[in-house]
Specification:
mainly alpha; 4 helices; about 80% helix; elongated
């Protein structure tokens, strides 16, 4: 199998292996991490307390809508 054929086969399989669920989970994880590292997190903790701020943060989800 030549390089061209191998690359074509790899590109073809990449489209099939895309998992919306795992991508959404990773997006949510990154979104929550960014909120924790922002100024808003300090304000949330001051206003609601540590425990309630964590609950609110867990409600923040990153969703993907297919076109």
């Amino acid at each position: 199998m030549g390089k061209k054929s191998r690359l074509k086969k790899e590109r073809k399989s990449m489209g099939k292996s895309f998992n919306m669920s795992s991508f959404s989970d990773k997006l949510t994880e990154n979104f929550q991490k960014e909120i924790r590292n922002s100024e808003m997190w300090g304000q949330m903790v001051a206003e609601f307390g540590e425990e309630r701020a964590e609950e609110i943060l867990k409600e923040c989800k990153g969703d993907i809508k297919p076109i």
